[in-house]
Design a protein that fits this description.
The complex is a heterodimer of chains A (164) and B (293).
Chain A: H1 2-25, E1 35-40, E2 43-49, E3 53-56, E4 63-65, E5 72-76, E6 79-84, E7 90-95, E8 98-102, E9 107-112, E10 115-117, H2 123-139, H3 143-163
Parallel strand pairs in A: 1-9
Antiparallel strand pairs in A: 1-2, 3-4, 3-6, 5-8, 6-7, 7-10, 8-9
Helix pairs in contact in A: 2-3
Chain B: H1 4-13, H2 22-77, E1 90-95, H3 105-119, E2 124-129, H4 131-141, E3 145-149, H5 159-171, E4 178-188, E5 191-200, H6 202-206, H7 219-292
Parallel strand pairs in B: 1-2, 1-4, 2-3
Antiparallel strand pairs in B: 4-5
Helix pairs in contact in B: 2-7, 3-4, 5-7
The chains are: A alpha+beta (164), B alpha/beta (293).
Amino acid sequence: MLLNRIVVRSIGRLLTRSYATESAVAHTRNAGEMAFTFAAPYQVYYNKANVKQIDVPSFSGAFGILPSHVPTLAVLKPGVVTVYEQDGTSKKFFVSSGSVTVNDDSSVQVLAEEAVPLELLDPAAAREALTQAQGNLSRASGEKEKAEAQIAVEVAEALVDASK
Amino acid sequence: MLAQPSRIVLTLSTWNHQHTRGMATLKSISLRLKSVKNIQKITQSMKMVSAAKYARAERELKLARPFGEGAQAFYKKAEVTAPEDTNSPKLIVAMTSDRGLCGAVHSNVGRVIRNNLQQEGDSTKVVCVGDKSRTILQRVFANNIVLAAKEIGRKVPTFQDAAKTAQAILESGYQFEGGKIVYNRFKSVVSYATSEIPIFSINAIHAAPKLSVYDSLDSDVVQCYTEYSLASLIYYTMKENACSEQSSRMTAMDNASKNAGEMIDKLSLTFNRTRQAVITRELIEIISGASAL
């Protein structure tokens, strides 16, 4: 009789202990949230923010990232990143290059080398940059110079596309 | 008369004692006073300059911190670990600058790297960013230095500088399996901590336990990713180190000005005392001469 009571009491204590640890674990992210960090070297746009969706242009194709997206790594292509926030508004940024990381705890890091809100782009300046880059490409000699000029042309073309 | 020169030599070396001959030391004290006042002006202006630079560096560091933390996030989340083998080639990047008079910033980094090299020196190579780390390490560990970057510290570090450094490291041909960046992490105006950020090679990433969770990774993407994250981490540590250095220089120059001020007070007192002693001696000579008549 006494043994039963002791066993019941110890089981009860065990149950309460595991209950406490369970609630500690549940502190991590809920299924529908993501921690989105979008930063350039000199500017940070989102830091561990919770947004609905992000569209990124990458060399392996443009794709959208929602919470619980499969973890992946990608390299950014010059283009437009669109961020859809929780209240339905969307913000667009032009990025020149960088990397995208989606981790398994739904944290997303978009680290761009240069990122600027689309509103700040000037179409005329973008077109001028494109003609200049194309001129440099035709004048370039040597593999490294040609590759750098080609990169400049790609970025300028994306700029013109984005600023239209 | 002839005895004067030796007396002057004696008095210059014992100018603290009360029995010195006043005549010779008055000039030396006033010379010293003038030079210490100049030094105080210089250190005060250096403090103002570094305070301005520190304000800007702190602002930019605040914006660069999410960038740097994001660059480290993948390696943490995928649980990439350094290779266990202690003989595998490693790379240490020493983050310092060219300019001194900034407290213990450079010597702290140098000390950490020196201890590291003493323990496992043969397979580790060092990239010295900034002349100071090069001077600290090249006396004993000249064989371990593979690259040295100069002209750091004059201007604000940009991503361009970090990209150039990363490019040079990758083009140097040194294949490393793992490594770290040693820098000073900025904590507050009065404190910084010498810390390390690990850098991983492509092999280490492929050996990570959680890599299979990541979808659609081809070797091209992983290589681009490691190159970009190396540049990002170098940029982030450059920013942190610049901020720590400016705050440390501000504190050092402030202390130097205070010390110079104390020295000026002490010297002024000694000067006045000596001046009065000289006048008293002259008076005594005159009076004793007059009374002899």
